[in-house]
Amino acid sequence: MNTKLLLSLSAVVALVAVSATQPAHAEGKHKERKAHMEKRGPMLLSERVAEKLDLTEAQQNQIKQIFEQAKSETKADKESLKSLKKQWRTLSKADALDEQSLLDVANQQAALKAKLQVKRLQTEKAVQLVLNEEQQEKIAKWKKKKQRKARHHGGKDRA
């Protein structure tokens, strides 16, 4: 029991230390990038990708509907996650560390992130059903190339 508590406390302290050392300008850059990505929209809906995949008008419309539905279904969860991040920052800046509150917020964040990750996978699978075999193969090649490039440049190894 004491070991679990010590490990949990160590994790919380490590997270607080990391979050406290983040430069203020990094958050601003993240917001700019996120705004740009939201404005740009999903990659598969870009004209360039639609052309490379030779998507039909019907496929483009189906994919657009899938992404719009996913966006509306995840909006509330994303807002909740944003709120939890604010709570985390507030709790981590407090003079007295409230371990239980931090653990509660961290667990809620983890649950929401897992839910959003599952939804992303469901969306990806729904899009795959719209594509023909040749289009699916092209996307698979692009993903492999992107993974190799990320590993080469020290990025995460994503499966």
Q: How would the blueprint of this fold be written?
A:
Elements: H1 2-21, H2 24-40, H3 47-53, H4 57-93, H5 99-130, H6 133-152
Helix pairs in contact: 4-5
Protein name: Periplasmic heavy metal sensor
Signal peptide: 1-26
GO molecular function, one term: unfolded protein binding
Short description:
The chain is an all-alpha fold. It is built from six helices and no strands. The protein has a single domain (32-143), classed as Four Helix Bundle (Hemerythrin (Met), subunit A) (Up-down Bundle).
- Helix content bin: over 70%
What would you say the CATH architecture is? Up-down Bundle
Domains, number: 1
Quick one: biggest sheet?
none
CATH class descriptor: Mainly Alpha
User: What distance separates the N and C termini?
Assistant: 34 Å
Helix and strand composition category:
mainly alpha
Query: Which outline best applies?
Result: elongated
Runs in which pLDDT lies below 50 for 5 or more consecutive residues are none
* String of helices and strands: HHHHHH
Family: Belongs to the CpxP/Spy family.
GO molecular function, one term: unfolded protein binding
Keywords: Periplasm, Signal
InterPro entries: Cpx_auxiliary_protein (IPR052211), LTXXQ (IPR012899)
Structural notes for this entry:
The chain is mainly α and 159 residues long. Helix content is 84%, strand content 0%. The chain has a single domain (32-143), classed as Up-down Bundle (Four Helix Bundle (Hemerythrin (Met), subunit A)), CATH 1.20.120.
